[in-house]
């Protein structure tokens, strides 16, 4: 018998739920293998501890005393980084989507006009780029304004939550705990 097989059935051996043949095989293996016998002894100790239950004597006002100790503990503060990471992730995704949509719709001559103008002076290149973007400007403008509006609403919501709703919620929870 291999140790890996013996270890797999050792729990059942301790509980005496194995068929008689397997019980005998495990017993023989335990006589020959000191490692498996040590594991067997540990399992018997754990099994014995699990079967000896002792009821804990709890004070009648145990819950109130625990809650009183919890109230004097310092309030854990959530890290402020997580909110900013989420906001930064949102901004990156929103602006990437807005820029992709704004530049994916221009006509095919956009790239050729800008590339052709790159050989001339800088101001002419900018003028050609603006001229090439003119068919898409209203769409790009509406996308950018929409993203900025959502950004402003999210920032306002976060500000209102942390300035007004969260303190009121904390006060309400503290009052409900003191009642019970």
Computed over alpha carbons, the radius of gyration is 36 Å
Distance between the termini: 61 Å
Overall SS class? mainly alpha
Largest sheet features: none
Give the rounded overall mean pLDDT: 77
Unreliable spans are none
H/E element sequence: HHHHHHHH
Count of separate DSSP helical elements? 8
Instruction: List how many beta strands DSSP finds.
Output: 0
Strand content: under 5%
What does the overall shape look like? Answer: elongated
Percentage of helical residues?
Answer: over 70%
Structural commentary:
This protein is mostly helical and 180 residues long. The chain contains 8 helices and no strands. The chain has helices at 3-15, 20-32, 34-51, 62-72, 81-104, 109-117, 122-133, 137-179. The longest helix has 43 residues, at 137-179. The two termini are 61 Å apart. The model has no long low-confidence stretch (mean pLDDT 77).
Layout of helices and strands, plus pairs?
Layout: H1 3-15, H2 20-32, H3 34-51, H4 62-72, H5 81-104, H6 109-117, H7 122-133, H8 137-179
Helix pairs in contact: 1-2, 1-3, 2-3, 5-8, 6-7
Short structural description:
This protein has 180 residues and is mainly α. It has 8 helices and no strands.
Features:
elongated, 79% helix, 8 helices, mainly alpha, 180 residues
């Amino acid at each position: 018998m291999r140790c890996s097989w013996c270890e797999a059935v050792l729990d059942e051996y301790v509980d005496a739920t194995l068929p008689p043949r397997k019980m005998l095989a495990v017993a023989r293996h335990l006589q020959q293998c000191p490692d498996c016998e040590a594991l067997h002894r540990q399992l018997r100790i754990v099994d014995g501890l699990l079967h000896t239950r002792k009821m804990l004597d709890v004070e009648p006002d145990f819950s109130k005393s625990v809650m009183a100790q919890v109230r004097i503990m310092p309030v854990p503060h959530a890290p402020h980084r997580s909110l900013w990471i989420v906001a930064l992730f949102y901004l990156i995704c929103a602006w990437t989507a807005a820029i992709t949509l704004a530049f994916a719709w221009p006509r095919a001559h956009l790239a050729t006009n800008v590339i052709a103008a790159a050989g001339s002076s800088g101001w002419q290149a900018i003028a050609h780029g603006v001229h090439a973007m003119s068919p898409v400007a209203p769409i790009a403008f509406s996308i950018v304004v929409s993203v900025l509006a959502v950004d402003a609403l999210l920032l306002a919501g976060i500000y209102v939550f942390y300035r007004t709703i969260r303190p009121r919620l904390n006060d309400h929870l503290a009052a409900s705990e003191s009642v019970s």
